[in-house]
Amino acid sequence: MEIGNAAQWCRRFLLLVWCGCCTVAGAQESVDALMAAGRYAEAIPRLQAQLETATDTATRVRMLVALGEAQTQYGDASAAEHSWTQALRLDPSPATHAAVRLVQGNGKLASHDREGAIADYRDAVRNADAAADALLGARARINLARLVTGGADTLLRQAESRLDGLADTSAVVMSRLAIGIRWLALSAAGRAERTFKTAEAQATRLGDARLGCYAQGYLGAALAARGQRTAALTATRRALATASQLAAPELLYRWQWQLGRLLAEQGERSAAIEVYRQAVAQLQVLRGELAANPGQPDRLYESLGPVYFGLADLLLQRAADSGERGEQDRREARDLIEQLRAAELRDYFGDECVTTFQTRITPVGGDQHTAIIYPILLPDRLEMLVGRGDALRQVTLPITRRALTEEVDALRRLLEKRSTNEYLPLAQRLYDRLLRPLEALLDGADTLVFVPDGALRTIPLGALHDGQRFVIERWVVAVTPGLKLTDARPLQRKNLQALVVGVSAPVQGLSALPAVRAEVDGVRAVFDGELLLDEDFSAERFSQALRRQPYAIVHIASHGSFGSDPRRTWLLTWDRRLDLDHIEQDIGVGRYRDEPLELLTLSACETAAGDERAALGLAGVALKAGARSALATLWQVDDRATEQLVTHFYQALRTQGKAAALRSAQLALLAERRYHHPGFWAPFLLIGNWQ
After folding, report:
1. CATH code, residues 1-186
2. Average pLDDT for residues 109-118, to the nearest whole number?
3. Which of 562, 573, 574, 583 is nearest to 635 (CA)?
């Protein structure tokens, strides 16, 4: 029995350093509860208010340490360091050092600095032991046990022995629950069961129904892992009853999801689907709360993703068994994926730009000449949903998510090696896996629009090869993060004007792009507008140009990078690196323009190979900028090839749709011997509106 996102829960509970010191009087939730739930935006002002009224040093130190942790998780590292410095200045004792090192380790772990986190946790263990602080010592060991490759069981036993000597408190119960979760992760289900039973008994003595609910639910997971299905169902239903009494959606969805998995494992698919639907409904209630913390960029997807995919999995299983009668289940599964894509982008950008964009678009309608392809990567198989007109068909392919991801990552690396044809066998293998089984459904289609999932976001699907031709030689290809995120209105060609900007010279430590001059000249030969090149392309002049004129096309020929963290995503102007928020402010609908930008072109950006989140950000850049479409690159391309492709694209755009114009430009490059390799032409993607 998998334990879902229990590790996320464990991480948040162990963020608390000294519980019981931050309780708010009256009906308000305690700061501890807000922190445990990951609601840092609410916890920070509560802590600051209580800090102002605290008089004794010990309380102020505890609050400063907790405030620093909340600030770290919220994304304000400098404020966190200031809080911790104040705490250590007030009390430089080993106990305070242990507390600070513990939360600093949590921050490093959230930033994917595993080794730094291990070092901080080890230091926290040493200082806690020196201070004879059993609770801090237990917590530091629990966190360390999550990261070390050997000795985790010893650390957990040491943590348990320290908790055994302490009186019942919420902090002790939280730590014991975290130990149980780690025992589950180590496949020690028997120890986990005993730990959760002890935690439930302690929570009952404390009268803490919320902690008792966690203990009941995770006891169900431990019993399931031991094969005791009936007992697991009973424990999970008890947890659900408690969560219902508490009216706590963050608990309800968790145990509804677990109950759905248990029912599915027992073959009760329809009952499982109904329970999964209830979990999805609870997550909709929680959505705004889950998205409230910009310092937790993966949190929303961590919570929603497994539940939405789990329900889609069951619906598609039932649809496959039902034949034509499964259309309703297929549509529900597709709509779930659409909701998840929108949630992912809200999560990535940390704002409601997705919702704003959706309110302004014309929905995509049915079209027999266009095939909309949804690859849904599940643990044990790949489901392909193909939409043609009003029909939605399903093809189940026997490849696991892990195996497909490995092949896709390998192809991406080989596509960037332009000096060899090593990519070709993999490009053909992936065509055989992904598209050959769909060929009957694609008959008569001239355009393929992919709504890619997972690793498939990181490769250009037009570079797959059927043994005779590339996909781009057979079809027009476009990608979109979701049909409900795509504005279907076709390009209005009358009086199109372009703002063309670029950096050709070396600046800010980045190399020159000498062909940019020819590239921007090629764009201006097709469309009227304004040019800002090199020194003229400052951030301020770019903003001023957009304020003066609502250009239909913005073409940016400059270095850019998309990363897993949107705060590390940028486009280069002459004097600074422009982040996505500034792009949204300058280009987006509502500030300087009434209508969306038709096309945003980023001709020299790149994403890291295998980085699915970075590719997600690239897919969402048009949406963030309020543009109907974006033309962007997955990796940096020879700038001479870029100049040729871009010029041909804009010339073709006079008479063709956007994706068709890109195909025309790619085929022209493909026809040249020196640029035949897909490493030159394939990384260009048309994202969003393809018409």
Report:
1. 1.25.40.10
2. 87
3. 562
